[in-house]
Amino acid sequence: MLRADPDRPDPPRPSLDRVPELVDDARMSGSDATLTSTVAGTPSDALGRTCYRVVQEGLTNAAEHAQGADVRVGCPALRRCPGPIAPPGLRSLPA
């Protein structure tokens, strides 16, 4: 049975505020990656994790299949959303 080391801190969770780190890591790996937008409002944890994973996958694909290409990462739809951000299906769920 695998057990977590109690002295080892949990790794950071994927979230939208960690997307700039992904872009920086891609740049440090030789990609010409640029973050082109910021987000207004506070996304839900689920949406933040989803955005992180989508950007992560996109940067991985660019590194594997488009070496040397300019890569621009942006979330223009999120940039226009005021206030808390949640996927539309979650807004209609009862509290």
UniProtKB/TrEMBL annotation:
Residue ranges of the region described as Disordered: 1-21
UniProt-listed InterPro entries: HATPase_C_sf
Name of this protein: Histidine kinase/HSP90-like ATPase domain-containing protein
Top-rank taxon, per record: Bacteria
Matches recorded under Gene3D superfamilies: Histidine kinase-like ATPase, C-terminal domain
